[in-house]
Amino acid sequence: MSERATRALDVAIVGGGLAGNLLARQLRRRSSELRIGLFERSSESSYKVGEATVEIAANYLIRKQGLTQYLYENHLPKNGLRYFFDQPGRDCSLEQMSEIGTVGFPFHPAFQIDRARLEADLLQMNRTDGIEVETEASVSRVELGESGAMHRFRVTRGQHSTDREARWIIDAAGRAGLFARLAELREPEPTHQIGSVWGRFEGVTDIDALGSDAFRDRVRHTSRRLSTIHFWYPGYWIWFIPLRGGITSIGVTGEPVAGSREMRTPDGFREFLESHRAARELIRDAKIVDIGSYTKISYGTRRFFHPDRWALIGEAATSADPLYSPGSDFIALENDYVTDLICRDSSGESDDDELRERCELYDEFMRFRHEATMLLYRNLYSTHGSFELARMKWDFDIGFYYNLWVSSYMRDQHLDAEFLASQLRLKPFVLQAMQNFSSLFQRVADHLRERDDYYRTNTGEFYYGLTNIDFTEEVGTDRDEQQVMEKTLEIFNCVRAQALVMLGEADRTDEVEPLPLSGFIGRRELA
């Protein structure tokens, strides 16, 4: 049975997962007048990966969502990233492994979130805040309006269907890609072909209870358990993420997953984990609760936001790689942009031409961010597994993230049209520099393998992750473009100097002559 509904919405959000729920809440916090509908196919939230947040997402949850107290009361604080390294036989104990990580909690809060709990709680918050929330609601027959026309869609619950209209419609329905199919937006990832398998475990051994006093001394007795723990191997990595209630999320991401059906079964997954001594120590008494997998993780989109007042957010738009947890960062950026566009439109602050111009600007910047993020992964999984190489790449990846992306987000520069225009002018140079460093990392990995030195420092070493990232107190402060560029150049030269020493082209890093910025942004070899 179908009936024609006359009640139109200002905003219809298709999908009640993390992205959709957070957008609904953000819109309501910005405007009490908007008529917002959120339509979710499922009746209850289910376990999902993507539990670890990093600085942009955490700042968004605290500052834009007002969830500080909620997060500390219902989820776990995160003690940074932590990497462990093994030998080819995968037979090192935790204490033997070289390690990169923190010696105390980070400069900005971050969290390990139970996605099912958070999404269920957000749904209830949104209901309480007057948002029309419909669960067990399937959306179909979407007709995207053009040139200011209303969007039309059908909502079906059981045997009952209702035709609805909305001025704005947002696809937050996940990887299925409602608009991606409708408007042919999905772009397959041509190079980065990896998969992932994961599960929730009960009874995982507390890493903080293992090892000697010396093992705990080297991290100043901070909690390793609250870190997002990574075990690094050529072609793949294993994660351990603690959640409230005694649950630990464990997963494997990389090339082996995409090609192994057995590995995506509970028995095959556990067998793979137990083939690594360190992981085996941690899951010895653990019981697997459930399991999930993707054979292909990465994809892009031809458009995030459209001037005809529709958008894609979360995994409805893109998916990069779980390493560095970029998914929730992208949700933060996308939701900020959609909220800004909708509020400008509803308040009459922007006419159609101004809205179109800003929409195109935001869209181009998000496509730039996706491409820059993918350059952290493409062709680089083969470089995983070497402590000294990962230490160098850490300095590049984390330093670049804090300097270029985090600092500007905390000051809302990503919503300033002039700032975005200046960033987009730098786009070709940023992407070229990242490609140059990608080639350099691959060259170092090949050199270490040829000399049989790839694993030479994988035992007995500890590297404090902020050793060469000495500007965290400046992150989020008023820094002009020149200061950002000077720090960028410093990071580039620091990493290049480390690479030249590993390549045998210099004896010490302080003997390497620094390059000017122009030396990094052209098409050239860095060594």
Please give a structural write-up.
By secondary structure, this protein is an alpha/beta fold. The chain has 3 domains: 2-46 and 116-187 and 302-362, FAD/NAD(P)-binding domain (3-Layer(bba) Sandwich), CATH 3.50.50; 76-112 and 193-294, D-Amino Acid Oxidase, Chain A, domain 2, CATH 3.30.9.100; 386-521, no CATH class. The protein is 38% helix and 21% strand. The protein is built from 15 helices and 20 strands. Strands 1, 2, 7, 8, 9, 10, 18 and 19 form an 8-stranded mixed β-sheet that branches. An 8-stranded mixed β-sheet has the order 16-12-15-14-13-4-5-20. A hairpin with a 2-residue loop joins strand 9 (151-157) and strand 10 (160-171). Helix 1 packs parallel to helix 10 (326-347), helix 2 (55-63) packs parallel to helix 12 and helix 10 packs antiparallel against helix 11 (352-374). The termini are far apart. The mean pLDDT is 95.
